[in-house]
Amino acid sequence: MGSAAASPPPSRKPTQDELKRVAAHRAVEFVEPGMTLGLGTGSTAAHALDRLGDLLRAGALPGVAGVPTSHKTEAHAARVGIPLLPLGGGGGLEKIHLSIDGADEVDPDLNLVKGRGGSLLREKMIEGAGDRFVVIVDESKLVPRLGCTGAVPVEVVPFGARHTLGLIRKVFDGLTGFHARLRTVPAGANGEDSESEAPFVTDNSNYILEMFFVDGIRGDLPDISDRLLRITGVVEHGMFLGMATTVIVANKDGTVAVIN
Ligand code: 5RP
Q1: How do the residues of the chain divide into helix, strand and coil, expressed in percent and rounded to 5?
Q2: Is the dihedral of CA 39, 90, 191, 126 positive or negative?
Q3: pTM score, two decimals?
Q4: How many A from CA of 230 to the centre of ligand 1?
Q5: Ligand 1 within 6 A of 130 CB?
Q6: Can you tell me the distance from the alpha carbon of 249 to that of 20, in angstroms, rounded to the nearest whole number?
Q7: 74 CA to centre of ligand 1 in angstroms
């Protein structure tokens, strides 16, 4: 629960998890008393939650509260003592001063792929609504183009999900090596009594479709975004274009870059 020292001993290379923690701790330095925070989801964001919890318990950040981007983050934040505000309890949204979250990929223009953890919709709502969005990554997340290292997720309504998958495939018709599929989880992972794989279900009771590109997305990202969002059945996609205001990168050589 509590966080250890931010830097590994100088005698060995830091692990990826240590780099994630370094980036997370650096981001928490931006937090000021009284702020309402967007609380991200994932293993990097988890280090920020731990750090915030430590500082709150030490009385260093009076008045700080958070809006969680997932059920998992909500539980983690509650465990470490971060006061929570609901997103849209009555349909509204708290004023968010600063969001801190990890990313799956960061391109040279600070566009992101997020949502391989499945929380992209609430992340995009909360992080898009705040004044400042600080992204925390280790250097392995830096890519020349989005979609280089794995899936670009798309959240869709379960109704007709395979039909929606077909419509997404049409957007990329003829693109060499493109493929898309429904994200599944092993039998029983959603708590159901089944012996076969089941669709991954998001916190919003939706499904995730995964798009794969050979060597990343080479097209016009805003145009691709628009075309995906125009498909009835698509709720949101995991390309976060022009949203990050700061990216903090922890490098293996021990340096930390803060890119605005
Ligand atoms: C979850 C996310 C995460 O921020 C992203 O997957 C990065 O995760 P991690 O910090 O564990 O590498 O978008 O939906």
Answers
A1: 25, 25, 50
A2: negative
A3: 0.92
A4: 25
A5: no
A6: 9
A7: 15
